[in-house]
Design brief:
Layout: H1 2-17, E1 32-33, E2 57-58
Antiparallel strand pairs: 1-2
């Protein structure tokens, strides 16, 4: 019985104090930060070309790869 209780306590302590990346606050990897998420061009005449640049900053600790961009 004591041996069984020791195993249960060991498992429980490993679960609580182990390095669990799901429960960690310090997430590793890329983190895209976009301060401006919308831009209104107002009225655009037909055939006119318009542009706007959205600045994307990587505040993570790994390279950020942007694989797909769609207009909303």
């Amino acid at each position: 019985m004591v041996k069984y209780l020791s195993y249960v306590l060991l498992f429980f302590s490993l679960f609580l104090f182990g390095a669990n990346p799901v429960m960690s606050e310090d997430k590793q990897g890329p983190k895209a930060v976009i301060n401006e998420t919308e831009f209104n061009f107002k009225e655009v005449k037909q055939g006119e070309t318009v542009e706007h640049t959205f600045k994307v900053q990587n505040q993570g600790d790994m390279p950020l790869k942007i694989l797909n961009v769609r207009p909303g």
